[in-house]
Specification:
mainly alpha, 6-stranded parallel sheet, 3-stranded antiparallel sheet, 4% strand, elongated
Length: 993
């Protein structure tokens, strides 16, 4: 090395060390600081990153000005003190020695030469400056392929912006894409780090980037214009006829990158940024989301140098990446620690990482690559007021929120909240789920919560009180529309609170839509209230329960009401305790816990009477009455008495909605006792009140009751119509429980008209809804009806399976009526496959239960089916006695359809003993009743029996006509009787039908 080279190396080493000590200010920043004493382009040459390109200063005075600035900024000269002459002289000597170096590939700044300054000096040309390719890029195939397609020469888009939150893998994707694209851009592949969010760096000025790019293209630093527009235009000119790939990584904003964009048709620019660069015209945005679970797990395994051999390890990895929020940076950092600890167990790591509920960011701290640092660089660039909103969003216990909730939390106008939320969204500190709703990544929320540690307790309490107050009042407004019997509590929302919650909901459907949308937030707020704000629990729990009772799971409703009971007792709020107990009793009934339901209603009733709350007393009486229908010791007389007392109080207090509910409940009691005319009259009275009030949910419930009465009296067409009308109401209201019940009831009516295939579909839908809502009693009823539909279609195995499931559920729920119905159904299947002993036992079991309960309709069915078993075993006298008992009950109940089924069975009895004239008479009666009630299958059975009787009596022609009509009905219904009837028809006509 020559002396000149040595002197240059010494100067550059000390020059760079001083620049770094001063914080590595950019040439533009230095030019501004020294008032333009040295031009920006000159400074760019003095501080170029390449030792062979850097220019040793020629301007003695300018050099001294910069030297003083760097010494002052580095702190090496105390404030207010000048740089001493001895230091200045030493530096000037270093500079002069460096400029006397022998001629080398690196330049020195030219002396004044008007001719030389016009002739650009040739410089080394840099054509490839890409960073090293990433080791692993998983889960980004679609995004990568899209970039490659957009970079194609024929694509109209020449700029792609990859935006996403900190740590999502934007730079990794851009790096991989650049390496894949490199061969197509022979004139230059440049990767420029703009440092918008790099710790220890200021965002790079576009002036400096342009200087580096132009020097890289071979231009002499002295020929580069000083102004930004001049550099921009020169860059565009030099790149206009070239194929250049430019990657601009970590861009701050559009202003930083706009001057850097080449305009040549052969160039392609790939930008990464944490901001959504919506103002960049002509760019194609490519938002980068979090990884999907499987690629995230693959990334962890790859970076940890572990193979997911065991199922336990695979499950542990899935859990780890989920706890990382599927954020690539978090996954890579944690996996890197594992890679350096081969003795670590993946399963143990998953357990430990999960235990850090609010300390996961500490586990993701690996020097400058810590997730916390990445988040901090984004946070620090926010205005102070926006920083506060970001912090306070971490206080929200839910996972997402809308503008109204944010304005309540932050105590600001909705318009301001909307603008600030959108700004955070633009910075990828929030994600938009739907228009007007936002959520934060789990790790970002944890980061925001850690920042709140600096807030005072009073500030946090004020913010949370505003948020909880909003959800409490808004949910109460919704619940007022969803709850049929409003409770008379002291916790009712006052008018002022109602105003704070915003406008009332337009209708029940709008209220239900809001409650469903905010369900997770309301549950999270309730848990927060239970731990810190107990006086808010009762209202939040009651409001939430009005939703959960519709949508399920009802086990969750039990938890909510029990929490409300416990909190009310802790606060000694007797009124709130009674409300919660009565609501708890209702949900216990829905879930089949009848003794607990009765206890809850009794306790609520005692408190209401103690407080003198007559409205609450009526509610508890009415609800207690409903529990008495279902409990194992069913007592319809007591139920009627309870409903009657409730009705009296409702009428005395002028509560019309309660009056309608009590009338409807009394109708159900009469219906269960077989008093169908009285039941219909009470249902009609309830329907009139609900219609007057415009209560569509109440109307739907009464229509269901009227439909059941119509079915029980044999009018299946009317029953189907009424259930369909109820179904429309429930769907309009979004009431899933009501929808499930209407589907099931309509399926029963349709099956009895002969369309068992359609009934199967309705019962299947109903069962699915019941399971979603968590209504086990409803699911049991759906299983029962599925079994009956399969039995009608001749699929005995499926029928038996569904009926067994129903029976088991009814047994678990201690529901004797259901057990009787299931036993009757199982008996029908047993007889169909020839197991007469089992059939007799099952029907006798059903008969005993029905007589104990006074369940007359099912009693008549059990008697009729026992009669058929006796016919099959040739016990004809016993059969006749059973049929006579059954027919008497059906006649008393006014059930013409039940009468038709028994008439058909009597026809079969007399056919079996060879008395064809009497058999024909019974079949003729069944035919008329079946036709009148819409019971198409009973009509077909009557036609077939009549044909067989007529054939036996010698009337072949009429027998053929009757058989053909029967076969047609059977085939349309898809039932197995079609085959035997067609065979008999063929045998008497000689033709295959």
């Amino acid at each position: 090395m020559s002396d000149g080279d040595s002197a240059r190396a010494v100067f550059l080493a000390r020059w760079r060390e001083l620049h770094a000590a001063a914080g590595a200010p950019s040439p533009t920043a230095m030019a501004r600081a020294i008032g333009g004493a040295v031009p920006v382009n000159t400074l760019s040459g003095w501080f170029h990153a390449d030792d062979d390109v850097v220019v040793v200063p020629r301007d003695e005075r300018g050099f001294e000005t910069v030297l003083r600035y760097l010494y002052g900024r580095s702190g090496r000269v105390p404030a207010g003190r000048a740089l001493d002459g001895r230091t200045l002289s030493s530096w000037q000597q270093l500079r002069r020695d460096a400029r006397k170096r022998a001629v080398t590939p690196g330049p020195v700044e030219p002396e004044d030469d008007p001719v030389r300054s016009l002739v650009p000096t040739s410089r080394p040309v840099v054509t490839s400056a890409l960073r090293r390719d990433v080791a692993a890029l998983l889960g980004r195939d679609d995004a990568l392929e899209r970039i490659l397609r957009l970079a194609d020469r024929d694509s109209p888009s020449r700029i792609v912006t990859v935006d996403g939150m900190a740590g999502v893998g934007k730079t990794a994707l851009a790096t991989r894409a650049a390496h894949r694209l490199a061969p197509a851009f022979p004139d230059g592949r440049y990767f420029v780090e703009l440092h918008a969010h790099t710790p220890g760096h200021s965002a790079v000025d576009p002036d400096d980037v342009l200087a580096r790019l132009l020097i890289g293209m071979g231009m002499d630093p002295g020929s580069i214009p000083e102004s930004l527009p001049g550099r921009r235009d020169l860059w565009r000119d030099r790149s206009s006829d070239k194929r250049i790939l430019l990657v601009l990584d970590d861009a701050r904003d559009v202003h930083q990158i706009e001057p850097l964009l080449p305009t040549g048709g052969g160039c392609f620019t790939l930008v990464t940024s944490r901001r959504r660069l919506v103002a960049l015209d002509g760019a194609t945005p490519l938002p980068l989301s979090l990884l999907e679970p499987e690629p995230a797990a693959e990334l962890f395994a790859a970076m940890a140098n572990r193979e997911r051999r065991a199922d336990a390890d695979a499950a542990a990895v899935r859990r780890i990446v989920a706890l990382c929020g599927y954020l690539p940076l978090a996954i890579v950092l944690l996996a890197g620690r594992v890679a350096h600890h081969p003795a670590w167990s993946i399963a143990e790591l998953a357990e430990e990482f999960a235990a850090f509920d609010n300390g996961r960011l500490d586990e993701l701290d690996v020097g400058d690559r810590a997730v916390r640092i990445a988040f901090t660089m984004s946070y620090d660039r926010l205005p102070a007021r926006r920083q506060q909103l970001f912090r306070w969003l971490g206080l929200h216990p839910g996972s997402e929120l809308d503008v109204a909730a944010a304005s309540a939390l932050w105590d600001c106008a909705p318009g301001q909240a909307r603008r600030e939320l959108e700004a955070l969204y633009a910075d990828h500190l929030l994600e938009a789920t739907v228009r007007g709703r936002y959520r934060s990544h789990d790790l970002l929320r944890e980061y925001a919560r850690t920042l709140c540690a600096t807030e005072s307790a009073e500030v946090i309490d004020r913010a949370l009180s505003g948020l909880l107050g909003y959800f409490e009042s808004r949910s109460a407004a919704a619940s007022r529309l969803l709850t049929r019997l409003h409770q008379p509590t002291t916790t009712s929302v006052e008018p002022a609170q109602r105003a704070e919650s915003g406008p009332e909901f337009d209708d029940e459907r709008a209220a239900l839509a809001w409650m469903r949308l905010e369900r997770a937030n309301l549950l999270a707020c309730l848990d927060l209230a239970a731990s810190k704000y107990p006086r808010r629990v009762a209202m939040l729990a009651a409001s939430l329960a009005s939703l959960v009772e519709r949508d399920g799971p009802w086990g969750e409703a039990v938890r909510l009401h029990r929490l409300a009971v416990e909190t009310a007792r802790r606060l000694r709020d007797r009124s709130a305790e009674a409300d919660a107990l009565d609501s708890l009793g209702v949900v216990y009934r829905f879930t089949g816990r009848y003794p607990e339901s009765a206890d809850a209603h009794r306790a609520a009733l005692a408190i209401y009477r103690e407080l003198g709350h007559r409205h609450g007393e009526a509610n508890a009486l009415n609800n207690f009455g409903a529990t008495r229908w279902f409990s194992d010791d069913q007592d319809y007389a007591e139920a009627a008495e309870l409903h009657g007392r409730a009705l009296t109080i409702y009428r005395e207090t002028g509560h019309r909605c309660g009056e309608a509910s009590a009338l409807n409940s009394l109708a159900i009691v009469h219906r269960a006792g077989g008093r169908h005319a009285q039941a219909a009259e009470l249902h009609e009275a309830a329907l009139a009140i609900y219609a007057e009030l415009g209560d569509r949910r109440g109307m739907a419930g009464v229509l269901q009751g009227l439909g059941i009465v119509a079915r029980l009296t044999g009018d299946h067409g009317e029953a189907s119509r009424l259930h369909e009308e109820a179904l429309r109401y429930y769907r309009l209201l979004g009431d899933r429980y009501g929808e499930a019940t209407a589907l099931n009831n309509r399926g029963v009516a349709i099956r009895l008209t002969g369309d068992s295939t359609a009934a199967l579909e309705l019962h299947t839908q109903s069962r699915s809804l019941y399971r979603d809502v968590g209504v086990r009693l409803g699911e049991a009823y759906a299983l029962l009806q599925l079994g009956m539909a399969y039995a009608a279609l001749g699929d005995h195995r499926a029928a038996n399976g569904h009926l067994e499931q129903a029976s088991e559920l009814y047994r678990d729920l201690a529901h004797p009526e259901g057990r009787a119905d299931a036993a009757n159904g199982l008996g029908v299947v047993a007889r169909s496959v020839g197991n007469y002993r089992a059939a007799r036992d099952l029907h006798e079991q059903a008969l005993r239960i029905c007589r104990d309960l006074g369940y007359r309709h099912a009693e008549a069915e059990a008697l009729a089916e026992l009669g058929s078993v006796h016919v099959a075993t040739a016990e004809y006298a016993d059969a006749a006695a059973r049929f006579d008992e059954s027919l008497r009950i059906f006649t008393e109940l006014g059930d013409a359809f039940g009468h038709a089924t028994v008439s058909n069975k009597l026809g079969a009895l007399f056919t079996a003993i060879g008395v064809h004239e009497q058999a024909a008479a019974h079949y003729a009666e069944a035919l008329e009743l079946g036709h009148r009630t819409g019971g198409r299958l009973e009509e077909a059975r009557a036609l077939e029996g009549l044909a067989r009787s007529r054939f036996a009596l010698g009337d072949r022609a009429r027998a053929v006509d009757d058989l053909r009509a029967a076969v047609e009905i059977y085939r349309r219904a898809g039932v197995p009787e079609a085959a035997s009837a067609a065979t008999f028809l063929a045998s008497i006509t000689g033709d295959a039908e």
